[in-house]
Amino acid sequence: MKLKKSWLTWAGRMAGWLRTLLLVGLIFWGVTTWQALELVPENELAPQFQLFARNGQIYSLSDAKGKTVLLYFFAPWCTVCHFSIGNLEGLRSQQEKGELLIWLVALSYQSVEEVDVFLRRHQLRYPVLFGDQEMAANYHIGAFPTYYVIDPRGKVAARSVGYSTKLGMRWRTN
Q: Are residues 22 and 94 in the same domain?
């Protein structure tokens, strides 16, 4: 009798946790979907750009034709950016195979030094492009971080706003 009662208590707790987890997941999905409503729609051509990188090179989306590009828009002061940018490391194998280009785009920064501090803190080895207001407007950046995956034809394949896990980033880039 005691075993049956403890089993029912445990099962009841697990059902409660599962309901809570499902509710949190639905809320997270709803907020993420709502935030992405204003972004450039999927299957639409991505806005073209030419930006200077930290290394002095000029990067252009047209130069990446035939490759998948992940654009990671960030601000050095953004707390969520600090938490999520490390998850890009989960894409390193795709990048090393030449399947994916990862370009970080700094927006909303006070100085180049502020961006450098962010990069040193996270020991990032990706090209860092310095975005401007025109690019922010073209890509409808209203919050950080914002991700765009551009397919080899230059179309938006996926987009998201906010924190993304390694698994979420891998899922969006495949």
A: no
3-state secondary structure of 15: helix
User: Same domain, yes or no, for 70 and 135?
Assistant: yes
**Residue 41 and residue 57: Cα distance in Å, rounded?**
29
Domain count, the chain: 2
| Domain membership of residue 24 as a residue range | 1-37
Shared-domain flag, residues 59 and 22: no
DSSP 101-158: EEEEEE-S-S-HHHHHHHHHHHT--S-EEE--HHHHHHTT--SSSEEEEE-TTSBEEE
How high is the pLDDT of residue 75? Answer: 97
Which run of H or of E encompasses 21? Answer: helix 2-36
d(CA 73, CA 161): 9
Q: Which two tokens stand for residue 143?
A: 């919050």
From CA 46, how far away is CA 8, in angstroms rounded?
54
**Per-run averaged pLDDT (10 residues), the chain, 174 residues:** 63 79 75 75 96 93 91 96 92 84 95 94 91 95 95 95 88 84
By residue count, the chain amounts to 174
> What is the distance between the alpha carbons of residues 164 and 172, in angstroms, rounded to a whole number?
10
- pTM for this predicted structure: 0.82
The Cα–Cα gap between 109 and 172 comes to 27
